[in-house]
Amino acid sequence: MSLVALADPPAVYVDGAAMDCLVIEAVSALRASSAVAAARATKIELEMAQAGFVPPPPVAKPQHSSKDSVGSNTARPHSYVDEEDEGVRSRLEAIGLHVGANYAEKLCRDRPLFSDSLDAIKFICKELWVSCWDKQVDNLRTNHRGVFVLQDNTFKPLTRISSWEGRAETLKRAKLAAAFPAGIIRGALSRMGLHGTVTPEITAPPHCTFQIKLPKNT
């Protein structure tokens, strides 16, 4: 194989529905593995506490019910899913981070440097969105102070998510599935030198909004 072929391998196409279903199954697999890892860590912590190596774990305080909207950061500043799904969310976002960074590097290979953060966000809304999800963002808003809101009325990764248990369970699954795209967006921005937070907000799947917060003067 020549060096040119290694540097720029031919494109390999995969059916879009297969990729959507793969992500759904990946969420289920990661949820199971996360539960096993959490149970193992808890068991080790209890054994060490019983042996006197570490202090006993604190007694969990009762959780108050929260009526925050989807994506609200009132109770958990860095999470938008239930506490039981936080391990799965972090793993999905970490996977998306690597995917987005590598994908952005390939898309930006022949482009000049971005002039400012707005230029980079427009690239996310057009080039990255079309490459990953077959359409551009439906709406982009910004306060010109480092906050950008990207709205997709029919976000492709959420179109195949449903649950026989009702709307609440469907919404819960959609929030978890949005962690992977959020990681892709954050990874792409980081590869372009922009480090911030990406928070998906979902009220009625497949409608989805991503709020991006970047440091000022970037």
Compose a concise summary of this entry.
With 218 residues, this protein is of the alpha+beta class. It has six helices and four strands; from the N terminus they run H-H-H-H-E-E-H-H-E-E.
Task: For the largest sheet, list the strands in their spatial order.
Answer: 1-2-4-3
Which percent range fits the helix content? 40-55%
* Content of β-strand: 5-15%
| Class based on secondary structure composition and strand pairing | alpha+beta
Q: Enumerate the spans where pLDDT stays under 50 for 5 or more consecutive residues.
A: 65-77
Please provide a written account of the structure.
The protein has 218 residues and is α+β, with helices and mostly antiparallel strands. Helix content is 47%, strand content 10%. The protein has 6 helices and 4 strands. Strands 1-2-4-3 form a 4-stranded antiparallel sheet, covered by helices on one side. It is globular, with a radius of gyration of 20 Å. The protein starts with a helix and ends in a 5-residue tail after the last strand.
